[in-house]
Amino acid sequence: MLACVNTIAMEGVTAVPVEVEVDLSRGLPALSVVGLADEAVREAKDRIRAALKNSGFKLPTLRITVNLAPAHLPKVGSAYDLPMALGLLAAMEQLPDAALRGRLFLGELALDGRLKPIAGSLPAAIHARRAGFAEVIVPEANGLEAAFVEGVRVVAPATLSALIRHLLNVEPLPALPVTDWHRWVDEEKTPRRDLREVKGQEHARRALEVVAAGGHNLLMSGPPGSGKTLLAQCLPGILPPMTLDEALEVTTIHSVAGRLDPLRPFVGSRPFRSPHHTASQVALIGGGGHPRPGEVSLAHRGVLFLDEIPEFGRTALEVLREPLESGDVNISRALLSTRFPASFQLVAACNPCPCGYLGSPHRPCRCSPLRVEQYRSRLSGPLLDRIDLHVEVPAVPQEVLVAMAAGESSEAVAERVMAARQRQSQRNGAGVNNAHLDGRALEQNAPLTADGRALLLTAGQRLGFSARSHNRILKVARTVADLDGVDQIATIHLAEAIQYRVGGVFV
Prior knowledge:
Blueprint: E1 2-11, E2 14-25, E3 30-34, H1 39-42, H2 44-54, E4 63-69, H3 81-91, E5 103-105, E6 108-109, E7 115-116, H4 121-131, E8 135-137, H5 143-146, E9 153-155, H6 160-167, H7 182-187, H8 202-214, E10 218-221, H9 228-238, H10 244-256, E11 272-273, H11 281-285, E12 286-287, E13 292-293, H12 295-298, E14 303-306, H13 314-318, H14 321-326, E15 328-332, E16 337-341, E17 345-350, H15 369-376, H16 381-385, E18 389-392, H17 398-403, H18 410-428, H19 439-445, H20 450-463, H21 467-483, H22 491-502
Parallel strand pairs: 3-4, 5-8, 8-9, 10-17, 10-18, 11-14, 14-17
Antiparallel strand pairs: 1-2, 2-4, 6-7, 12-13, 15-16
Helix pairs in contact: 2-3, 8-9, 8-18, 8-21, 20-22, 21-22
């Protein structure tokens, strides 16, 4: 007997169709899995045997062959347990073929027959709707996540027995209602940290506002305790809220990575990722034998904060070049090439020297010139060239910390940022920030006056700007003009952009 069950495999963040074919034939009793399956899939035969036995079914004493087609596509993870078990039951004539048609199945089996959560339920439901499936079956813990997708019935049984009764129409399970994502967005509107907490640092606060308004990257340098980390943590609170399409993109990535909370399976606020400086290249960019999203993809549509950036490995930092330019990551392996979205804003922080007190009027620096040079050389020129704003964050005097009142709130700054973003959308096109302008679009949307061209020419000749630096200065100047609510980039806007380019200790 032969049976066929529909499921999916993941290519990056996209679900692709997979057919689970189960054949029973005469021969020595055995269960073999073919079709480029990894170890977790091959181990499924033991979980299936126990789950079926504890659900009241007995395996036949026949040779069982399970084929996962297409055979050239790697199959990873435990989500194939459920479709393989159902295919086996259909081949044993315990389930009619009609009960499996028009349905998409995925889920991991516990030994007692419970359905355990798996990664990728949201992209599976999206694929089910596009492919015309009437129903998608996922574990109970993944039900809310899959139910974000309208146009397809989502059924989330708790056990294999409950699912079989549903398929036999003995005890039909109700379809889950479409998940209301608005409730989580409303709960996440409060920023994590507020700019009110930042005392002093007016120059850095202004730079942060420019970064938020134009979608730029930022490098802050300063002694320990000057507020670099706090400033970075305030950035998500002044960024515009995500649209539903952006939120679904981010949620899909976190679903594939298996990082969604079953009780709150929606990422409604912009991500803020802050990996430790011991993170490897694979942890940052993604990858592995079976590629998975890295920190740059988990920060998609949000902020990637690299504190103490010179302490990261040189190789790990250099892999950031591609996503900073293209907004995605392409990971190539012998059997496949995988793309993950990675459109994020990089915010990095560092000290001026290894001890952190170079140039401090209160504490002497203990570093030799050679150590300072070695420390600063850990960041390559090409990587620094891709960071739009370089800002020095000096130590805040004690009298300012004690006497100065709280600063302007994130809410007030966010209003100006939103107004600047709206100007960009009207001029550049929906969703296109100034940081993403390039080529002809940059020429059209960031024209300079004669005085502006003369200033940029003089600065470029004296400071040795590269072509990339030249373009990034124009983008920042365009953002500064947008914050001022004007169409023409004035000399004062260009001067501020140049100042951000030559600030900091790594320039």
